[in-house]
Design brief:
Length: 366
Amino acid sequence: MSRIVVTGGAGFIGSHLVDRLCAGGHDVVVVDNLDPAAHDGAPDWLNPAATYLTRDVRDPEVWESILPGTDAVSHQAAKVGLGVDLSDIRGYVDTNDVGTATMLWAMHAAGWSGRLVVASSMVVYGEGRYVCADHGVVAPAPRAVADLDAGRFEPGCPTCGRALTAGLVPEDAPVDPRNVYAATKLHQEHLCRAFAREHDVAVCALRYHNVYGPRMPRDTPYAGVASIFRSQLAAGVAPRVFEDGGQLRDFVHVTDVARANELALLGSPDVGPARGVGGAREFDGALNVASGSPISLLQMAEVLAAADGRGLRPEVTGEYRIGDVRHVMGDASSAVTQLGYRAAVAPADGLVWFASDPLRRPPRAT
């Protein structure tokens, strides 16, 4: 069995990964500062089989103590969500970029070599993949306030202006982060790849699509849209769906995301030649982690509202956020071939469960 460090392992995705690794008999060390902006104290789900260090990944001394004897690191710790406005920029850069840089600096100083998996996001792509009937794959122009104010939410071809067809985004699509959070996630990828080029370390960046499920944070503007809708329903308020509700996303269940992380850390017996951590097949690069079953935000809100059972109907508001994108759906075929990952939970089922899943307690007021 392997010794594996999971940063952010008390959080939403990290805790599910910790449970999987502990169930597999691995020696798991969790580093999580239980940031009061995200946690109301220690959560109820901490796994007794893991070792927990209530420390900050930006502290070099933490890494000096835990890297010796560690076979792999899963770097989940981050400030998540799109942020409220640009006043969040220092917090995102400090937590995400400086935290990752400190980890890599410590790995370099220790001469550490092992397997590194970093949590990334589909937000690095910016807008999704679009095809024009006449001009093929095109990149639409940035969204214009005048169009959004007029309710024109669908992007047009930058050459002819015709309507576009949204498709699946592959990992080799151009990246175009549209907000501070997205920029920090891409920078985390770049820092880890720069480190890997100079060291005997395999790095896999997992680009999560819209993750949902039990333990998700609630009642916070930094939560994902699924949690926001769920929190509104819990308060007896109809989900407020921005734009016209036609935005397409891929909602992937947190248990599938944890499984993808486990495969990236340890490998699949069904895929390729064995080498690396615990006999894992090593993959260097970025992989989409998605369900493969995209739905619109309005459809998602309708499923949650129906499962809630109180007769609330989603309200389509026409509101928008300039930093949002219209459609993003990931092509997860590379994760199938490289890791043996296939989503087990379809949104049609998982979102029904999510309507009654336990969520994380609201963070303490600061």
